[in-house]
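job 3f2a | input accepted
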Amino acid sequence: MDRRTVSTALSRGHRASLDGAETDDFSALEVLAEGTGAWLSHLPGYAGIALLLHAPLLLVLLLPPLPAGVVAAILVVAGLFVALLVKAAVVKAVIDGRRNLSTDFLELVEALRGAPKVLVLGARILGRASVRCLLLLVPGLLYLTETFAAVPALIIEGGSTRAALRRSEKLTGGVRTQVLGICLVIWSIAVGLMLFSGLHKGGSVGSTIWIVVYLCTRALDTSLAAVLSAMTYHHLCDRPDAG
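job 3f2a | predicted structure (243 res):
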């Protein structure tokens, strides 16, 4: 075989492997940058629907006098499920945005039709993660990482909750460290806001002004988390082996 032919073949093969490596590259920083940009561009709609979904938590003011710790626990647990509802409303809008399709506020509300399945899936993930965290913290965090794309997969692709979990495990395969980095950013923001609000101390919990401010900050936090979840799913699906 001619040396030039071999050289050309090797060059093309090397170039193809580099192209494949670039295509397969999943950057957590890119996801965070694009997600934050998309969130800021549609902040009124995304934060608005999140605040609307958090509004029922104001009912905690109607409860009989309870220890501040109990009220804080109610807000935290209820907030986890509200965050799932926010994802149900926002994820499709984010993916549509990546496809240059517009979404108005009413479409965000309409997207909540898939909320029951999202709540079931979320409860399943949180339940399993809690068991793993009780045994050892790291396995629980890793499970949350590998199932991070499950809710977007359920919303966009449909199917059963089990299929969504399998799909997420496949999508995150090979890049779970990067996905964990995105999760850590989301969790850090959520925990930081709770600590900043004094929820862990129970100080002003039960005060109308405090709860209104708290729910507003949570609306911002959960809407950003929903956008980052959708953007992560979008980038994972762009990988060559996403299937």
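job 3f2a | Confidence is low (pLDDT under 50) at residues 1-23.
job 3f2a | closed
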